[in-house]
Each structure stands twice: as C-alpha cells, then as structure tokens.
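Class, study these two lines:
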Amino acid sequence: MMKLRSFLTSISLSFAVLPVFANDSQDLKVLTAKVLTATSAHYEASYGEQEVADNFRISVSTLDPRLRLAQCDDFLTFDIQEPAFGSGNITVKTRCLGAKPWSIYVPTRVDIFAKVQVASSSLAKGTILTAQHLQSKRINISSNAGSTVTDNKDLIGMELKRPVRTGETLRFTYVKKPNIIIKGQTVIMRVSSSRLSVQAPGIAMKDGRLGEQIKVRNEQSNRIITAMVVAPGEVSLIRR
C-alpha cells in the first residue's frame, strides 16, 4: 500500500520540482497539519463548527518521508475534492504558488458519526413498523450517507420489503408504503366539491397504497374508474 501511495504521490506532481536541499524543503508534518486545518475549515463552512467538532473525524495520511518539495508555507492553496455525501476517502489538491511551484494530491479521510434507526429485534419481511421495532444507535455513516434513516417518524407505518436482523441499520430502500386497500375489497368512492360530497360503493381492481392511483369498479354502474387511495378502504375519484 505504501509503495502504491508513493507512486501515486510522485505522478501527481503537476510541475517539475527542482532539487531542493534539506534546509530549503517543505516540512511534510507542517504540510499535513495545514491540509488538516484547511479540510476542517471547509467542512465547518458547510456544516458548522460545533457539528464538525461533535460528529466529524478528519485525518490526513502520512506523506512519504522521501518526498522532497520546495518550502512553500505562505503560498499554499487547497482544493477539497469530496464525494457526493461529503465523507469517506477524499483527496486534497495542495498547490504551491511560490517561486518553485508544485502540486500534490494528499489522501484524507472524513468520517461522520450520527444517530440512525436500527431494528430493536429481528423482523420479518412484511412487518409494518412501529416505534417498538426501532431504536437509535450512533454509527459511522461515512459509507452509508444518504440511505440511513435518522428519524423514526420516517419509518413508522412503513412495510419492510426484506427481513432484518437485530441491530441492523434500517435504510429507506428496505421499506415501502403498505397496501391499505386489497384487490377485491369493497371501498367507498368519494367525489367532493365546494358545494357537495357524493359517495358510492366500489370494488378495488388491485392493491393500493396511500396516494397511489388504482382502478375501481363502480358497483352501481359497473363502470371502471381511476381513483386515488386516500385512506384505508377509501378512494377519491380523479376528475379528467
């Protein structure tokens, strides 16, 4: 791994660096510290200083001690190249704009910790989630950002699409809205206006989730109509 990192470091130099003597070379520990400071400032600007202090862990990889760069403490710029969700392995393009310019990509790690929802017990596929099925756990979400769930309100009433184990992190992709109307069920069809509300019985032609459009057969006229599921056993007619 060290040999590979050394190789990547060497090819990332975008300027030909002239030979420098030890007393005129960049202190790599100082350089690493400056990269850390710049990366922390970048995330503090996006998330806030207290949030970064409480929930972020930023570390910079040790540079190959054989690397020789011209002294450039006062002429450094930093370009943070972060992934889609802002955490995980990133690179910091560090450039010297001094008399002997150079550029190097410094490997950096950003870990973010947050409380997420996990299963309080083993749950079967098809379970309709309640508060008793859920509990909070603080984890490193660096490789899970965007798919984990932090608020149990986003899960309560949802149906599991797959079984989960005790303590397993729950994700939005694991759940769906449950069917609240079943194919063949008798439902109430409603059509409302500002002046009146009319209702009639109908037969659901397919299963339906809240907010979903389904076909319903009017029991009185035998016509097939399109309606929106608005509550268990209840649909609202869609006017064309």
